[in-house]
């Protein structure tokens, strides 16, 4: 069963169980899938679905930060609830130790010596660790390791 089918089944189950928060979040997600399919005229693979979910989580995190700064706890909670629903469908994220170990291997394989080589490392890391770690976390860890 594809990830998209799983999400659709979970949406149906949320409707039956009258779980409004989960239902609304999954509807937003399926809407984003349909938008991409129509715009790009293609069938979405599981990788495409994961990228869309990651983009939605990143967007929600940005909004949550702004709501937290503005003191809008009501809107902040909505964003956090949606993030919680979306993250269920993402691959397990690497721990800090696993991320550091993976990045050390990448740094060694590309022959990076200092911060000037960060572009090489980020290119390789973004491809290899796609879906397993957020780009921001990768960037911060690479800076630390190359410093």
Structural features, described:
This protein has 7 helices and no strands. Helix content is 77%, strand content 0%. It starts with a helix and ends with a helix.
Short key terms for the protein model shown above:
147 residues, mainly alpha, Hypothetical Protein Yqey, Chain: A, domain1, Arc Repressor Mutant, subunit A, 2 domains, 7 helices
Task: Tell me which CATH architecture of the largest domain applies here.
Answer: Orthogonal Bundle
Oligomeric organization of the protein chains:
single chain
Overall strand count:
0
Order of helices and strands: HHHHHHH
Helix fraction, binned, reads over 70%
Main beta sheet strand tally, sense and closure? none
CATH fold descriptor of the largest domain: Hypothetical Protein Yqey, Chain: A, domain1
Assigned CATH superfamily of the largest domain: Uncharacterised protein YqeY/AIM41, N-terminal domain
Q: Residue ranges: pLDDT <50 for 5 or more in a row?
A: none
What spatial form do the alpha-carbon principal axes imply? globular
Proportion of β residues? under 5%
Radius of gyration: 18 Å
Topology:
Blueprint: H1 3-16, H2 20-40, H3 46-70, H4 73-87, H5 96-110, H6 118-128, H7 135-146
Helix pairs in contact: 1-2, 2-4, 3-4, 5-6, 5-7, 6-7
């Amino acid at each position: 069963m594809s990830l998209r089918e799983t999400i659709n089944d979970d949406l149906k189950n949320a409707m039956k169980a009258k779980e409004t928060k989960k239902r609304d979040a999954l509807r937003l997600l399926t809407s984003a899938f349909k938008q991409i399919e129509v715009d790009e005229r293609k069938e979405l693979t599981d990788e495409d679905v994961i990228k869309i979910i990651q983009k939605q989580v990143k967007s929600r995190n940005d909004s949550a930060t702004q709501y937290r700064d503005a003191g809008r706890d009501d809107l902040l909670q909505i964003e956090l609830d949606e993030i919680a629903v979306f993250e269920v469908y993402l691959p397990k994220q690497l721990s800090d130790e696993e991320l550091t170990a993976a990045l050390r291997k990448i740094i060694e394989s590309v022959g990076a010596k200092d911060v000037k080589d960060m572009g090489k490392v980020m290119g390789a890391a973004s491809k290899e660790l796609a879906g397993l770690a957020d780009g921001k976390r990768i960037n911060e860890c690479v800076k630390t390791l190359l410093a």
